[in-house]
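Researcher: Here's my situation. A collaborator sent me these components and asked whether they could plausibly form a single complex. I don't have experimental data yet, so a predicted model of the whole assembly would be a useful starting point for our discussion.
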Amino acid sequence: MSQLVLEAKNLSRTYKLAKGASGSGRALRHALIDMNMKINSGDRVGIVGESGSGKTTLVRLLLGLDTPTSGSVEFKGQALIAGKMPWLRKEVQIVFQDPRSSLDPRMKISEIIREPLVCLNIQEDHNARIDEVLDSVGLDRAMRDRYPHELSGGQRQRVAIARALAPRPTVLIADEPVSALDVLVRDQILELIAALTNSLGITLILVSHDLSVIARLCDRVIVMKDGVVVESGNTRQVFDAPAHEFTRALITAIPRLPESR
Amino acid sequence: MSLLEVRDLTISFGSKKVVDCITFTLEKGARIGLIGESGSGKSMTSLAIMGLLPDTATISGSITFEGQELIGLSDREHSRLRGNRIGMVFQEPLTALNPLMRIGKQIAGPLMIHKGSSLKEGLKKALELCTKVGLPDPDRILRAYPHQLSGGQRQRIGLAIALACEPALLIADEPTTALDVTVQREVLNLINALVDKEGSSLIFVTHDLPVVSAMTENVAVMQLGKIVENASVASLFHEPAHEYSRRLISAARLAEDSFSGKGGQL
């Protein structure tokens, strides 16, 4: 039986809006409302929803970057406390949407990948590990001395994946990892994420507004709207026979190619 | 005479050609999609028609619009067409709108500049335009600032501004890329309906094949500054002539198949 790695228990996060945003007093925004979720080791879970649905809030909480208003996130049974658990970053890593902003433009590729190894105090030959992850994401070792601006969008996202994998995490969170990339590059990056998480047995949490991306990579999908999970289950079942009206609306809104086969 | 004729248009920055000798024509009331990846030159082409290229760009060839040559026009002459005979909707409505100006005045702007309307007349027309682009409670919207509206509402405002002077040509550059899918569908339907009703011509710029196939009858596929294929949507999808078009189509098919369960999982 697979082990429970991440669990959200009655997780809620409420933000105070700036004064005057809606008349007098400080209005509250309920970004995430009483969410429950279990993620087992080796799961590949997709989280789908539109802007404002609470996806990013959830990701921040799962990474231990933010404190819930109520409820908790547990990693292997231990409740997360934001900023107090440096070891957590070795276990849960993230790939962000836009590699142009997630890679430091002043650092060489080797320094970018080395940073988590140093910060997390990982005891192994850093240079060897950098070469190893460069190989596994399909980048030439000669890229070590390049800077991010010298790389294409797809190559930069490979660097971001290499950096996330360097400390050998158990969970990888990918937040819209291909939406900033060109169509023809997207498939390569999706294939890479699938191949690496499969071969390394890494648990994958993939956040996307694109249902086809989730269909390709995830066994399970969680559909969110306005901070609430409206539907979740096996990806194929949810997409083939959506139970919730919002899921159906999402599916019918996708632009289709003309019938030509 | 065609409404728009682009002939041998070349745009370069220094020694780098971003648009390389492209030619296409657009008849009155017709629609064309420009599709390509980043760096293909599709946005530069639309900026050239609008006269909004940066000063550092060198441009050659010819763009005639309603019989008038646009290349070589002074900024002042070009600005008589911009927002008047040619309207444009941009990708990101939050940056396209002025954050310090109420919506009403932003919609009234082109009417005051090009049609000599007073602010009062402009605001009255703005109210009608808001209704036309399907915005509820237009009185409130006209008094609002851009940050107080949702992404979909802002893009409807962008469309209202572009259509205010009833342009002969509407250029929409990735108008729904920044929007959620359900909102995207609404905005595409709206653009379709309004362009039909007003009888404007449309240039629809996008990287998204399924989107363009729902919007235009013809598509020009751009790669590295060149038009590699210019065909009707139907023939492009049935028998793409260029290798690059085939790759774009098969990537879109792959996404669609995996979604519908035909493609399988990675």
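Model: Some features of this prediction you could bring to your collaborator: Chain A touches chain B through 34 residues (CB under 8 Å). The first helix of chain A runs from residue 55 to 62.
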